[in-house]
């Protein structure tokens, strides 16, 4: 006799709540079908369900996301970096207090001596026929961030070594919920044949029909839940083993929306508006955003960053500000709308020559118009770089390309090519290849849990506001 077990999963929603009612309808339909046939099924989320880019997640600090998962009766959830490093220690410690699902993350630990009661390294559920499903979760080890928040993420492979043998012994089927990225998932599949299924996320890869490596099937459903994942496992009761593994990602872009979920989100948004209505500043004049020209607000924000971090100089890209601010009252909701990115301040150490090269790259058309996606940036393009603590003199080659003539410090001295400087900027540039010198810097000091928008609020309050 053979039995099919179904796993439905989501990953990397990033608070794209426009799509969530479709997810809800799809999962409710699948649940009805499985119940009608008497099939065993489980619901899982692989992390980054929350993203503070959305006012609901910002206002409720992720607890609204937990409520949405509760309503659909998820079984297992692991955490992504957006849950893990965009909240304060206390906010993450309490995030899943009301969860009706199991939170599984084997490599996350509090550095304050006690883990939250909801945090478990593994979980096991049994089907009605007695098949035991063992689940382990892992999240990406961004310890430069986590440790500033009094958390630690243990290395991936030592964590698996510690748990996988016992999990295999007490389970018939082993599933890894991995918020690690595709390349790590593939390497884990090669090293750990005990794992039957790896459900992935983090790098937003879409595997429409899964990928098989040795005895393991790997799957993932992209980003923003335009797809929902399904794993179908066929168990032979006579042979007492899995005889077939299938994985699919279904496009639900045009799926009908669940009206109850839409109403829940409307109510959440209304409450979020109330929570974010606190006045930050009262502006006498409007403040314009411009991605390609100097603006007063962007300049003052860059000054604030330098002074707040006590760096030698600072630089911020104008694309961080998504909208202008009219004269009158500015609320925290306005600040969030204008600067929604979960981006932290950072100081990096650069030589003078490296700093000049970074400035040169930032002046190019390619840099300013680059439509960055990810690394915390939630805007449209990077925009012009603004500077504080230095004055940049530029010229243009005959072909129109800009070049740096001089970089002069506030004291009138030229930047020394061999001297080392502490440069404050957005942590976005410590990832990827946009500014290689910044990303490769061996000295980085991140500031958490503050976002750039917290400095924007301070700038509006202290530099532009009327006396309230």
TrEMBL record:
Q: What is this protein called?
A: Putative metallophosphoesterase YunD
Alphabetically ordered keywords of this record = Hydrolase, Nucleotide-binding, Signal
Instruction: Indicate the transmembrane segments per the record.
Output: none
What positions does the domain 5'-Nucleotidase C-terminal occupy?
Answer: 287-428
As given in the record, the signal peptide range reads none
Family listed: Belongs to the 5'-nucleotidase family.
Residues covered by the Calcineurin-like phosphoesterase domain: 7-205
Record carries keyword Transmembrane helix: no
Presence of the UniProt keyword Nucleotide-binding in the record:
yes
Which SUPFAM superfamilies does the entry mention?
5'-nucleotidase (syn. UDP-sugar hydrolase), C-terminal domain, Metallo-dependent phosphatases
- Tell me which Pfam families the record gives: 5_nucleotid_C, Metallophos
The protein's GO terms of the molecular function aspect are: hydrolase activity; nucleotide binding
- Per the UniProt entry, what species is this protein from, by scientific name? Compostibacillus humi
Q: Which domain of life is it from?
A: Bacteria
- GO biological process terms, semicolon-separated: nucleotide catabolic process
Q: Which InterPro entries match?
A: 5'-Nucleotdase_C, 5'-Nucleotdase_C_sf, 5_nucleotidase/apyrase, Calcineurin-like_PHP, Metallo-depent_PP-like, Pesterase_YunD
């Amino acid at each position: 006799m053979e039995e099919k077990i179904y796993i439905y999963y989501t990953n990397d929603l990033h608070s794209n709540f426009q799509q969530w009612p479709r997810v809800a309808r799809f999962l409710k339909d699948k649940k009805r079908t499985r119940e009608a046939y008497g099939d065993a099924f489980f619901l899982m989320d692989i992390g980054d369900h929350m993203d503070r880019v959305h006012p609901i997640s910002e206002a409720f600090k992720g607890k609204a996301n937990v409520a949405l998962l509760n309503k659909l009766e998820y079984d297992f959830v692991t955490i992504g970096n957006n849950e893990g490093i965009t909240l304060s220690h206390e906010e993450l410690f309490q995030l899943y207090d009301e969860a009706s699902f199991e939170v599984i993350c084997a490599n996350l630990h509090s550095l304050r001596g006690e883990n939250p009661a909801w945090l478990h390294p593994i979980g096991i559920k049994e089907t009605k026929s007695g098949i035991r499903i063992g689940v382990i979760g892992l999240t990406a080890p961004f310890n430069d961030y986590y440790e500033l928040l009094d958390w630690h993420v243990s290395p991936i492979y030592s964590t698996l070594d510690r748990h996988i043998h016992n999990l295999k012994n007490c389970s018939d089927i082993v599933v890894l919920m991995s918020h690690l990225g595709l390349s790590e998932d593939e390497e884990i599949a090669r090293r750990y044949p005990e794992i039957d299924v790896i459900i992935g996320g983090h790098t937003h890869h879409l595997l429409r029909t899964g990928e098989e490596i040795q005895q393991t099937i790997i799957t993932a459903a992209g980003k923003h839940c335009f797809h929902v994942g399904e794993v179908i496992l066929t168990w032979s009761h006579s042979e007492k083993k899995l005889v077939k593994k299938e994985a699919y990602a279904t496009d639900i872009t045009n799926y009908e929306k669940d009206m109850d979920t839409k109403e829940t989100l409307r109510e959440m948004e209304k409450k979020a508006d109330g929570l974010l209505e606190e006045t930050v500043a009262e502006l006498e004049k409007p403040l314009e955003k411009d991605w390609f020209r100097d603006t007063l607000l962007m300049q003052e924000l860059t000054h604030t960053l330098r002074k707040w971090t006590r760096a030698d100089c600072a630089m911020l890209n104008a694309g961080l500000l998504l909208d202008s601010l009219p004269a009158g009252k500015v609320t925290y909701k306005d600040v969030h709308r204008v600067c929604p990115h979960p981006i932290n301040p950072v100081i990096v150490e650069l030589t003078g020559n490296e700093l000049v090269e970074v400035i040169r790259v930032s002046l190019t058309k390619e840099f300013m118009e680059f439509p960055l996606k990810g690394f915390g940036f939630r805007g449209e393009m990077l925009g012009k770089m603004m500077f504080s603590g230095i004055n940049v003199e530029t010229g243009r080659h005959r072909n129109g390309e800009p070049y740096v003539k001089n970089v002069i410090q506030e004291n009138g001295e030229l930047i020394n090519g061999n001297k080392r400087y502490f440069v404050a900027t957005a942590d976005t540039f410590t990832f990827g290849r946009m500014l290689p010198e910044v990303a490769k810097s061996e000295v980085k000091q991140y500031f958490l849990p503050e976002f750039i928008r917290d400095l924007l609020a301070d700038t509006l309050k202290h530099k532009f506001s009327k006396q309230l």
